[in-house]
User: Fold these one by one.
Assistant:
Number 1:
Amino acid sequence: MIGRVVDVSSSDGTGTRGPYAKGVQRRQEILDRTLDVVAERGIDGTSLRAIGEAIGVSHAALTHYFESREALLVEVLRARDQVVQQEFDDDGGVADMVRAAEANVRVPGLVTLYTRMLAMSVEPGNEVAQAFFRERFAEGRKSMAADLRARLDASGATTDLDLEQVAALVIAASDGLQVQWLLDRDLDIPATIRLLERLLPATP
Amino acid sequence: MIGRVVDVSSSDGTGTRGPYAKGVQRRQEILDRTLDVVAERGIDGTSLRAIGEAIGVSHAALTHYFESREALLVEVLRARDQVVQQEFDDDGGVADMVRAAEANVRVPGLVTLYTRMLAMSVEPGNEVAQAFFRERFAEGRKSMAADLRARLDASGATTDLDLEQVAALVIAASDGLQVQWLLDRDLDIPATIRLLERLLPATP
DNA sequence: GTCTATACAGGGATAGAC
DNA sequence: GTCTATCCCTGTATAGAC
């Protein structure tokens, strides 16, 4: 196994010894194992039956913890976001984008999951993923714009650029570069994002 | 129907009256209708059976013209690329990126198909899509870098930037913005790409 | 060459037993 | 909480009609 997506024993509100201990741990086990199966067999190979097999339960048992396959896969991404934000003290700024890129090249399975789920979310019938990414982008653009504003003010510089638009651009570049990298591992994502950073005002 | 993806009667080598006329037209009909079904029911709803139903043939008939569902969907994208390149005299430069963005906001179904197929291509088991996008990105980066070089030389300016990296960045931004736009139609893709254009050297 | 009919393995979702 | 059984849908492959 790759490792626990998020440590349940320290962050879970119900504790690991309460009446729901087994259920909570089982839920965590499903999230962890799902990421393993994705890395081994790809998203399309990550059927509920395949995950269940990896754990030793039937596929129907999984639906007791997650409303649907889609919801389960989204939860894997959500758990990852949480651990990144906690461990790296991520505030959503431009610098964090580079660091995230550096970390992500070491977990291609996760980047693949992110890419596939994001594409899945753009179509009706995938409302769970859609809600997740809508909120994720809205928050990401907001915090990124705030970071740009703060850096600009600190340097005493001014700009006529729409910082929300710049934020959307940086996030878009990051997502787009990940896809190109998945298809051609020679591409250097962190270097290219740093290049974009250099082009931005107040980041000489 | 949305319209013919590419006019077969003028570009097809075998002609529309030859011995294979019916097959050629049928193949074209499948490509056209597939785009309609995608627009109406989403990619996941675009099963071979759904396409066949829209045409009035069995789903098995489709496999006579296309090796697989994946190959069929890729051919829709390839046909669209061809018509864009012919009609707009697209040379793959930065300016074409803005124009393509302006055209694409009018065909969200196509943007959706592109996004979903691109994400599909990053995983093993989808070699047809993978080959298509690998080549598409390689060519796109090359022509875009050449365009940047030409503009730079024409303006007499110089830069220490890696132009292939800049090209990858512009393409990545375009792809990433399309996804954000699909989730939030308020986002202005052409304006944001123009913003990036402004940041680039030799494009004041 | 074009197409229908059919069979197969596998998918997500769900109902109800235990 | 977990199971089995079942439903309907999918892409693919093949046999054979015309």
Number 2:
Amino acid sequence: MSRTGKKQPDPLGSMSLTMADLAQLAGVSKITVSRALSDSPLVTLKTRERIQALAREHGYKLNVSARNLRLRRSHTVAVIVEMKPSIDRTMFDPYPLVLLGGISQELTAAGYSVLLTTRQGASAAAVQAADGLILLGQGVHQDAVRRFDKLGLPMVVWGSRGKGDTQIVVGGDNRQGGAIVADHFVAMGRRHPVFIGNPSHPEIFERLNGFVDALALHGIKPLLMRRDEFTPDSGMDAVHSLHARGVTFDAIFACSDLLAMGAIRATMELGHSVPGDVSVVGYDDMPVGASFMPPLSSVRQDWQEGGTLLARKVLALINGHSTSSETLPVTLIVRST
Amino acid sequence: MSRTGKKQPDPLGSMSLTMADLAQLAGVSKITVSRALSDSPLVTLKTRERIQALAREHGYKLNVSARNLRLRRSHTVAVIVEMKPSIDRTMFDPYPLVLLGGISQELTAAGYSVLLTTRQGASAAAVQAADGLILLGQGVHQDAVRRFDKLGLPMVVWGSRGKGDTQIVVGGDNRQGGAIVADHFVAMGRRHPVFIGNPSHPEIFERLNGFVDALALHGIKPLLMRRDEFTPDSGMDAVHSLHARGVTFDAIFACSDLLAMGAIRATMELGHSVPGDVSVVGYDDMPVGASFMPPLSSVRQDWQEGGTLLARKVLALINGHSTSSETLPVTLIVRST
DNA sequence: TGAGCAAATGATAACGATATCTTGATAACG
DNA sequence: CGTTATCAAGATATCGTTATCATTTGCTCA
């Protein structure tokens, strides 16, 4: 059958070639075209090149759906992100995007695409058709994590490793993060540290743990100021309420840079000096922090690397290899505070 | 043929049902199943419900590839983002994520998925298979925009409308943004304003234009401090070099909050007061700005709304309707500076 | 020279869904 | 009672690839 005559013009009037069309043009069978385009050695180099040239020349585009159908895989990894800043402030910072960048780069290089969804949209058919799953910023939604796990897809999670959990987890070393801040405070001679943050996030709970344990080695017990929001206002509020309660303190570990900046501001407004009277360390090393007055010390994580790792691990799982959870080291960036 | 016996267990040992399987279970033909699942009135309500229940019970999942192949569309919109912060600092802030959130929400609701890529990865087959294209943060890469346009896909761009461009563009009203800042300065009695930023970004060029034109109405000509980076350091540097040149100024319009904060810091370090001697306004209204000392005035854009709009417009194009470019109003948030 | 073998290509049949065209059954009507 | 309208459900073909098996071609070597 001559297919050429039956082609439907697409919305722009151009024709979309199929392998059958190319085959006819080249005077070979379509399977040969298929092999040639995937650089199979089953086809002579000469025909292979001839067909590839022809494909380029005519702007041939592989029909992904057809290939996916035949191969029974979608070459797609679904990434589930928390994108409503109103719900989870953690995600209201640039890093998820950097993480996404790392993921995207690595997956694209491996011939996979990134399907982006929110937790809500994750029930869509396309997500279930994905070959793998990456979960970002779902720390507070452990139930959701388990629900996704039930899909039975290769899955990797960004966050903090729980005891009972069996998933593959990649994340910064929050325990170490807490510990190095503790050591820093001790080295500075601080004896009355405060922790500000929301420990119901597993990651932050770990930071707190690392902080508390490392301080305990020096017989110091920090004060926990629980604050749920990751905003400067929340940090200011924490310091004000410390002051109102008449608590004395000489160091603050805020589990986010925004909190830290708010805390510094409040501290200074109350007539104390930073870092003279009070040392402050934040978390995430946001670009603004470096230009804050005074420049903010902070714990830095390598987000890009995290993304790369997440991607590599799903790919490994997809290809039937085994992987393990991995914890990325963090570094303390000491600036003025 | 009895298919049941031939099923391959997936990696987890569960079987993936097809419509044919469901059909056999229900004792109907597969086309009836297809119709029942898409709620077609061509099937009796009773059978329809019976089949739907059966599908739920057995955890049937539609094979998206097969449907896409048959329907000749992918139900996918590719979003091309600049994700390398090292390359483009504009993207090193939370907003692209909010934009993505709006896009994702809207597209998911319409049954479409979001395929996320970088400019580099956009040549991948999956992108060309998308039903539509959304470009984010490609302002400086007009050549890239035109290249994507050549794909002939329904396309919508976030950014600033160029004169000769024929694409559908959605973006904040940068001209207005510049103008309201100018008016604000004039109302404050400022006569010697400075603009800091990189006008080779079309968006920022517009801000500058709006600023200059609105000031011209009052016979004021601002000074342009061209700075390519969107960092606080860059803002500090700009102010320092103004000082070194002996220029006097009483107002600064920085085209990003980070620049503004750097500028404020430098101004204060040089012994001037903000806002006493110098008024400063930034752009984007970052959360940190509100807690900066002094709290930063800034121009705010509605990113979530922008995302929603971008999505609606591609969908319109995909469905063969016509749309037009749209410019979103911005608001000046006046705080202390 | 022709058996034997490798290399190159082809024919056919899936993959799982849906559009189009039929068929079968029931009801309505003169 | 027979004819037609109406409705529910089925048969078949098709979307564009690729895996499997079969075939052809060219070549070596006895």
Number 3:
Amino acid sequence: MSVKTPAGGRRQPTIHEVAASAGVSIGTVSRVAGESPRVAPETRARVLAAMAELGYQPNAAARAMRTNQTKTIGFLIPDMTNQVFARVAQGAETVLAPEGYMLFAFSSNRSPAREVAFLQAARQRQMDGLIVTLSDETATATIEEIGRMGVPVVVLDREVPVEADVVYSEHMQSIETVVGQLLELGHRRIGLVTASQNIRPGRDRVAGFRRALERAGLPVDDWLIRANRQSAEYGAAETHDLLTGANPPTAILAAGSDIFYGALRAVRLLGLTIPDDISFVGADDPLLGDLVYPPITVIDRDMVEVGRQAAGLLLDRLRGLDMPPRRIMLGSNVLLRRSIAAPRHR
Amino acid sequence: MSVKTPAGGRRQPTIHEVAASAGVSIGTVSRVAGESPRVAPETRARVLAAMAELGYQPNAAARAMRTNQTKTIGFLIPDMTNQVFARVAQGAETVLAPEGYMLFAFSSNRSPAREVAFLQAARQRQMDGLIVTLSDETATATIEEIGRMGVPVVVLDREVPVEADVVYSEHMQSIETVVGQLLELGHRRIGLVTASQNIRPGRDRVAGFRRALERAGLPVDDWLIRANRQSAEYGAAETHDLLTGANPPTAILAAGSDIFYGALRAVRLLGLTIPDDISFVGADDPLLGDLVYPPITVIDRDMVEVGRQAAGLLLDRLRGLDMPPRRIMLGSNVLLRRSIAAPRHR
DNA sequence: CATGATCGTGTAAACGTCAACACGCTCGTT
DNA sequence: AACGAGCGTGTTGACGTTTACACGATCATG
């Protein structure tokens, strides 16, 4: 016994067919579907039976046209395969689902063009709200498109000139803490590999890095700062370049989960031992940091909480909250592990 | 200068407003939007200008109602935070996007109830097609719901009584290969931790495991087989239990990416050294396997290709292909690394 | 120069739903 | 018995599109 899934597209039953089958008018069916109280129990039962029988599901398009809401939230992430964003989605889901909203995730693969395409699709589809992580704060087309949305938008960890609620993560202090610790141990040349300065995390990490050195009265060697892209390949390439340079760093900060992967791989391929040959700090993937040997010090943040907070902000707007944009800042933790030690030659 | 995103819901411009602004009828605007050739170039230009001016995006709900298609594909995955499924989505995307379809991912968190909810939502939203990974083949409600879809559905790596195209991954042979190799090295007690036998991968892995032992003329100790759930916690718990038992295995097969994580963690926490104290084989996360020390032998498959193949099958159906269900089987590779060795006490 | 084909455009119906309104029925009240 | 209130149900426009059809203008043809 097997169930058919006709490619030809079996027509879905409509409210009219349910009405006919139950021997009532479409208005009554609609009231039953909408859980309106104004229906006699006996009628309701008959309608419910007809619905079940026919496998009726109300047509969302028609419903959306009448009610101007779709109970759909769009979730824009730079990269599906990155656990960091997936966890955010998971957190948001836990808040939105109980309210009857469906969260649909869409991955831009860090392409501003695809971000615009997503925003337009979301607008076409009358999505009720959006949670977005942009891949480039300077992409004006994306920002204009957000302005046109007409529904509440929550922005994650970006600084964009848009009147939207934002959930920020703290990056600067944690980098400062880590760099401070490395300086304490005697490191004088520390390499930083992180995201582009076109997004807040990249900018803040570089800023925190510089501040830590300046505070210690040390000069900043720009050669040691690599802040351009967010990918394992980039992390690997820059780490390799740093470690094979004329005057290599004695510690590497791989700030970003993909970069962390790539950088760690580069260190391994060079046959270097952590922390004897090189001190190493990762970010955003506490699991990986704890699985390798020795465990790696990691800058961590609770992404599920980010998702919950973002969903909370959105939900308030969906309920009609009218007030100036709100900003939430969530903290980071430095999970100290055995991957950092005093530099060898010194 | 900042852009507004009114919570109140700025009304979106409609085709009527564009028509008025361009001084033509709505029919003409629709023809321009639909790229029909029957429009004078001068008129087209005027309409296009009006559209751009107003930031017009056609209302997908209204369009869907007329045309019965939404250019939307639903993608159901058991777990967003699992890279394996994310990669499938990525692969599918590369095939579907050029055809104008948008892929929206939804995570069921391995809950059959949420799978049903997703399927109903997809039907309500008139999605044009679905790619689904079910979390339990025995959930009849889910299967019935698939039968009602009325649009093509592609199933990933599950055996369900549904007339749908399927993309399978090969599991049995690769497990046999690995177990054979371990036997060769002298292992006689091998622990298997994998997914529930309610899904094909779990079943096939257990079957492959048994076959390898039987072929070698060895008895199968059911205590060594743990096939119940797919999560890091489960992997950790069962691995711990196996390794602290009265007669522990000398090798562990952690078949499943989350299970791999958890199992590896359990081994670490017990302070065991791979491969001296215990031989270890993982699955589905070649990256992790290569990052830890020593690198871990892993059963790997190309999930992006799975996604591409699934999307290809779906696309054919969307184009109207009418033929019996097709099945594609994709292979697995055993990436041999230094985590397996001859057992110590023997 | 009449005829018909072609072209560009406008008009109107339909898609499936919701909700305002209307209507008839049953009660309780006087 | 008459009346109004309230309840359950049916009817009827919208919502924004697409598309078949209609129509006038232009143009080539005999």
Number 4:
Amino acid sequence: MDAPRWLDEREDRAWRGYRRMRRLLDLELARELTQDAGLSEPDYDVLSDLSETPQGRLRLSELADRMLWSRSRLSHHLTRMQQRGLVTREECADDARGSIVVLTPAGRRAIESAAPGHVAAVRRHLIDLLTPAEVDALGALTHRVVDHLADPGLRAARTQPATEV
Amino acid sequence: MDAPRWLDEREDRAWRGYRRMRRLLDLELARELTQDAGLSEPDYDVLSDLSETPQGRLRLSELADRMLWSRSRLSHHLTRMQQRGLVTREECADDARGSIVVLTPAGRRAIESAAPGHVAAVRRHLIDLLTPAEVDALGALTHRVVDHLADPGLRAARTQPATEV
DNA sequence: GGGAGTTTGTTGACATGTCATCGAATCTAG
DNA sequence: CTAGATTCGATGACATGTCAACAAACTCCC
């Protein structure tokens, strides 16, 4: 790693802008979500992913994978959400180790009443500020990066010390 | 809030892509940073912002504002970094309440040795995957959102209950 | 000058996330 | 079948972030 290629002015502007937007958008969306619906962003995400399945039920590991969370984190978080009556755990029929996360009626009500406001906030603070071309560009670019990061080669490098090609 | 305007297919693609990228990029950058430099992302950000000042010293509140962190969070974090010898606190000459955060030689070495690798990672996993047009678009769009979120009107809405216009 | 109100940074209690470990169940070879 | 390896989810210890409260210092303004 000799003479590092620093970011030029435009790249730096994009990178800093991205990080700043990230932070501010997070703060604002979380703030509105708590205020309007009494949910945290993680809460919302769990409920949202669950409610997208036909039965409102998902295997814990499956939910963790979709959310890109560790099973541990999800397990802890579910315990808290369970205490608030938003979800329940059920035993898994075909795999006795497994547990199935189930949306309770209260959980469904929570996400259904939170969603419109949250989507509106996402529009107000992000989507509606962009031109259609920018929306498409953002979609294209983020998916490219996601594909890159999900690449098996990278995954491998994370587990093995990696003998440089 | 009647009939909510949900996200259409393209908007949804952009929004999901953004969140997924956010998460994966975070994980990967944090992973490499810890492995290569023994720093967390928050550590890196603190050191980076400090090192961008001529003397490597900043008023705590000034640093907190730049980073968009609460003073409390920064204070806690500095305590930990101080224990690792990366920064020090000094008293502020013109304001006896204030404290000045100072980069130690070890802190400077840490950021200087971490920076090239980190920038390379940012390139590898983000910047170099984008076309020049996309870099510009990302810069433009993020700054627009940031300006919007930093808008005084919004700020006001956060403190006052706001009597709807 | 001096009291009311603000700002600054720290602190402790608590919420949340990470990491290593564990027991139980499942899978795989032989 | 069964011993060994793997996967699943829970858990406890710990790191990190948030929030409210606080003391000390500053600012206003009379």
